[in-house]
Amino acid sequence: MHIQNALYLSQRWNMEMLVGVKYISFYEQEEDHDKMLLRFAKISFKLLQLQYIQDLKILTKWYKEVDIASKLPPYFRHIIIESHFLIQAVFSDPQLSRARIMLTQYYTILTIIDDTFDRYASLPEAEILANSLERCTPDHAMDNQPEYLKAVLNFILDTLEDFEKELRSEGKTYSVEANIEEFKAAVKAYFEHAKWAHAAHLPSFEEYMEVAEVEIGVPRLVKSISVRGRLMNDITGCEDDMSRGQLTNSVNCYMKQDGVTKQDALRELHKMVADTDNIINEELLTTAGVSSLVLKTVMGLAQSITVCYNGCEGYTRPEGKIKEYMTSMYVDQIRL
């Protein structure tokens, strides 16, 4: 089982807590294990698990209070648990509860924007929402829009305002301001995808990836993780996208540009993922003047992407291994 687990997903690209809880069960089976060490490991995980569950209680309470589900048609994904689970890779320590909670809330608004553009809104509606989010204030044309669109905008602006209020008292509004700029870049990229989708347009592979990279950021390390996530998402999620009439993804763009079969395109995209792995490893080894904590956080993002898209689209359809992982984090109780 130990070998089988390692072959499925190497420790390098796995989430730290998943590796830890699995190793506890393996270590317990060793005949000469240290009973005291094992007990401490179990207690440590148990305390962390309780903190994660407390995070979820706060998040589900918030989600019920904002009640966005009752204000929108049922087109968007409810992914509070999935988001919080993946964010554990980025902020796993117990004292980082607020970071996990706020980032889960942030991913929730990004998912609703993505799903609104991708699954429901007309192109004019998507443009009005994008313009309003660019200015962080309602577009004048919003008055004549459907109630669901107003609800989406109000939910997003209220959530961002809550972030600012919470951090202002600590003098940390600079972090909100920086995040708002990245948020606007993400909205711009989502809207560009929406325009392609509504026009049934397949851009060149390079143009598609250039827009995809806008969704996260700039340094070579972060850019490589962004590209890796985009490719893995498309490799595992292209069938689901096409079942909804969404043709614009890296698989189809590559097939059209190079005139190859889907199988050939997938093979080349997998090679590109492997290339980004090499770049990420190189950057982690050679990057200077950056805190090891920052690098660990960035690597955690890469690990969460790998866990999410390793053979399936775990963010949209958390089944199989992803469901097993989440159960081990939130449901299964370790016997002390």
UniProtKB/TrEMBL annotation:
<dbReference type="InterPro" id="IPR005630">
    <property type="entry name" value="Terpene_synthase_metal-bd"/>
</dbReference>
<dbReference type="GO" id="GO:0000287">
    <property type="term" value="F:magnesium ion binding"/>
</dbReference>
<dbReference type="GO" id="GO:0010333">
    <property type="term" value="F:terpene synthase activity"/>
</dbReference>
<dbReference type="InterPro" id="IPR050148">
    <property type="entry name" value="Terpene_synthase-like"/>
</dbReference>
<dbReference type="InterPro" id="IPR008949">
    <property type="entry name" value="Isoprenoid_synthase_dom_sf"/>
</dbReference>
<dbReference type="Pfam" id="PF03936">
    <property type="entry name" value="Terpene_synth_C"/>
</dbReference>
<protein>
    <recommendedName>
        <fullName>Terpene synthase metal-binding domain-containing protein</fullName>
    </recommendedName>
</protein>
<dbReference type="GO" id="GO:0016114">
    <property type="term" value="P:terpenoid biosynthetic process"/>
</dbReference>
<keyword id="KW-0456">Lyase</keyword>
<feature type="domain" description="Terpene synthase metal-binding">
    <location>
        <begin position="64"/>
        <end position="221"/>
    </location>
</feature>
<keyword id="KW-0479">Metal-binding</keyword>
